Structures are given as C-alpha cells and as structure tokens.
Amino acid sequence: MVSHPRKRQKIAIKALTMAGIPSPEERYDQFPHEFSGGMRQRAMIALAMAVNPKLLIADEPTTALDVTTQAQILNLIKKIQKQYDTAIIMITHDLGVVSNIADKIAVMYAGKVVEYGNAEDIFEYASHPYTWGIMQSIPPEDISNKEPLKPILGTPPDLLHPPKGCAFAARCPYAMKVCRCIDAPGFEVEEMAIKFGAGCMMNVQNRCKNGQSDHRERGVVMEKQEILRTENLKKYFRVKGGHTLKAVDGISLTLSKGESLGLVGESGCGKSTLGRTIIRIYDPTEGKIFLNGQDISGKKYKKDKKRSCKKSSNDFSRSIRLPESSYDGKRYYCRRMGYEKALY
C-alpha cells in the first residue's frame, strides 16, 4: 500500500518517464485535454505499467493515431516487452500492426480462432481464406506496386443467428457445398511445439488426400515460464427474445513470459470480449483460464481476489483503450497512476 502523496507522485513520474513523455514533472499535474493524442496513449500505457504487470492486454492501442505516432507507440510497447519481459496480447483489426511485434498470431472470426501459429508461419503459409483476405487488404510496402487493395466482400455473420456450417462460407470465394453444411474441425494448441493450423475444410480435404495432419510443426521452442493459458474458453450473452450471442466460442491459447500474441480480426469478432474475459471483467460461460498456473476462471477466485487484491493484482494490467473513453475532468490524469498503485 502506497499511501503517501509524494511516493505516489514519484511512482507516477517514473511511469511517465518510462513511457517517453517529456517533462514528466510538469505533466504530472495536467489534465487529459492538455495532452496530445499520442501523449494520452502513452499516459495510458504508463498507467498500465505502474503496477508492474506480468500480462499486458493492449486493445487497439494505435487507433485514431497518425502513422508516425502509431510507430512510436508500437516501438514503446516492444521496448516495454524487452525491458520488463512482459507477456503481451495485442488486439487489433490490422494485421500490419502486429507484423513486427507479435511472436504468435491468432486470427479470429465470429467468436472463434480460425488460424493460429507463429508470425512467420501466418505470413508465409496462411491457409485460411479469411486470413488471405486480411493480408490482401494491407497496403504493400513497395510503392511501385499499383495493384488495388482487395476488400473482403460481404459482412460478418449475425452471432445471434449464426449460419450453419462455416461462418465465413457466405463471404468465401473458395467455399464448397460442404462448408455450408458442417464447420471445419478445430485444432489444438500445444504448449511446447509451435503449431500452425487453420480451421478450414480445404485443409481437411488436403489432409485426407495426403494422409497428413493439417498442422505444420515448426520446431520446438525454448521452454519458458507459462504466463497464460486458456482452454476451450467461451463467453455467451443472453439477450432479449431468449437468444444467445456466442461472442467467444471455444478458444484455446497459450502465452509465455516475454512473448507477444497478436489477436487479429474484424470488429465484432470477439477480440475485446476475449480480453475482458481473460482479465475477469466478464465471467467465462465455460472453459478454463490459467494465470501463472493458477486456475482463475472460477467464481471463488474472483471473490478471493476482492479480499486480497494486494497479493494478486500485479498479475493483471487494465486493457489499453482510447483514453478519451475514460476521460474524467475531475481527476488529474497522471495522478491516477499514484492512486492505482496505492490500491495495491
């Protein structure tokens, strides 16, 4: 418990310095509207890192920022990961944002992970049509390339009334009759070996023809301390009319110390809901969440956490959203870092 105002101020100024905000002593007493957009985002990152989290969930941290400021924020996140060996989940709709920061990438669509693997495999061997569509919509680095960007036609499915079979079939140019009848089987994420897999019927057909698995093993990674693991995690919402919205539907992921995972997909695919479920803002409908080997998915953990947040709060960092959404004109923006630390 940090109760002394000067100690809280020291913590806040240190966090602002770490985030690269100039003149942190002066900025400490300023309001949010006195910060630029990039500086507000840096202040949010400083607020998150003030509690020395083992896991940082960055939910669209570069939204509404210009290209230069976006690059600065991404470099800051990489610096934090390297300096503090923090595990990071980067939630974004832009595959290009995670191309230079993520060790692993999970592509989400309609509440499910449709493709998963290390970043190199996703960019070199992507085998799900949805991933192809996302990649084709990224502007090329070669300015001499005059080919127009190819959008993904259609709209995401209504999760209140999900279609039969593959959720992407209605938008997929490679869809077969079987895709509209049954969904492709999922794939398991193994802890020690980096697996590359995609939930698509084309891969199932290739596997049957060749007698091979639809996973590609890319070698065994160095053993690291596991920070996060989810097993068949689901989050359903009951809505009016007795319908069920399956926002997150059976997701299994692993994340080790110092690793970064890019969670990519269109708006409404369940990325943010997954992040909120992992940090227990939402109670999971089904499945398990393990943080540092401890099962935190049960209601008992949530009650124990409230009673003794001092012991467990450092395991979490608040998600990074647009600072404007949490604006509070009655509080000094940067002083909140001291209060945040004082809570624990």
Note down, in words, how this protein is organized.
The protein is of the alpha/beta class. Helix content is about 30%, strand content about 20%. The protein has helices spanning about 5-20, 25, 35-50, 65-85, 95-100, 120-125, 130-135, 200-210, 270-280, 300-305, 310, 335-340; strands spanning about 55-60, 85-90, 105-110, 110-120, 195-200, 215-220, 225-240, 245-255, 260-265, 285-290, 295. The strands form 2 sheets. A 7-stranded mixed beta sheet has the order 1-2-9-3-4-5-6. The longest helix has 18 residues, at about 65-85. Mean pLDDT is about 80; it is low at about 190-195, about 205-220, about 310-335 and about 340-344.
Q: How do the strands of the widest beta sheet line up side by side?
A: 1-2-9-3-4-5-6
Given helix and strand content, the structural type is: alpha/beta
- Provide the gyration radius in Å: 21 Å
Reported for the largest beta sheet, the result is: 7 strands, mixed
Task: Please give the alpha-carbon distance between the first and last residues.
Answer: 5 Å
What's the oligomerization state? single chain
- How many DSSP helices? 12
Poorly predicted sequence stretches spanning 5 or more consecutive residues = 188-194, 207-222, 308-333, 338-344
Helix content: 25-40%
Q: Give a count of the beta strands, DSSP E runs of length 2 or more.
A: 11
**Into which percentage range does the β-strand content fall?**
15-25%
